[in-house]
Amino acid sequence: MASLSSPFTRCYCYYHYYYNYNKFYDRSTSTLPLHILSHHNNHDKPSHHQITRREIVLRSSEIAVLGAIFKFSGKKPDYLGVQKNTPSLSLCPATNNCISTSENSTDLIHYAPPWNYNPEGGRRKKTVSREDAMEELLQVIKSTKPDKYTPRIVEKKDDYVHVEYESPILGIVDDVEFWFPPGNKPIVEYRSASRLGNFDFDVNRKRIKALRLKLENKGWASEDSI
Predict the structure, then answer these.
(1) What tens digit of pLDDT does each residue of 81-139 get?
(2) Which value, in Å, is the radius of gyration of the alpha carbons in the chain?
(3) Is 169 in contact with 60 (CB distance < 8 Å)?
(4) How far apart are CA 47 and CA 50, in angstroms?
């Protein structure tokens, strides 16, 4: 895993900072105040802690070139898929860039609750089959781009889907899995993890939440809230 001081981590941090710069961007001055770096607020003198919009564009281009050179997509982990010994999706590594329904609910960093596609007291007038629920899930995956990450379904079985989400600038790839466990319970397990780095700025958790909200419109519900 990359350390906090590695070139990739620094680049990854800057990418997320650039990507969310509109939250801090002051359109009246065409500058980007870096309040997180300085508490000075002298409007009479130009600040050394301000980055112009042009600099943001130029630096993002440099990052995109670095991404193409170093292939920040990463290598696909060999432990993905439904585990054989105890049927479940993989647990998360110790890094803070993964969430999974397989984790213990006391692990507030990595645990996320499963989904129910036929919840009691839900919006559905009648229950749907597992096959129909899978189709609903696929529709939402294809039509939703959380944080503008592009989804690509790389593996699909009757009870399992593996999706690669690629970031718009660096080409960073995250692996997201969905699994319909055997049995009569209308439950869907999932795992969302970044291939590189030690932390993800909550990208994985936000992605899962965005998908869940779309599925809730179809009648799904979370076993809990995240």
Answers:
(1) 999 989 999 999 999 999 999 999 999 999 999 999 999 988 888 999 999 999 999 99
(2) 20
(3) yes
(4) 6
> How many residues does this entry show for the chain?
226
Exposure string of 136-149, with b = 16+ CB inside 10 Å and e = fewer, is bbeebbeeeebbeb
Q: Do 116 and 223 touch, CB atoms closer than 8 A? A: yes
Per the listing, tokens 């984790």 go with 103
Residue 203: count other Cβ atoms within 10 Å of its Cβ. Answer: 21
pLDDT tens, position by position, 138-192? 999 999 999 999 999 999 999 999 999 999 988 999 999 999 999 999 999 999 9
The contacts of residue 60 (CB under 8 Å, 6+ apart) are 15, 18, 169
CA distance 90 to 106: 17
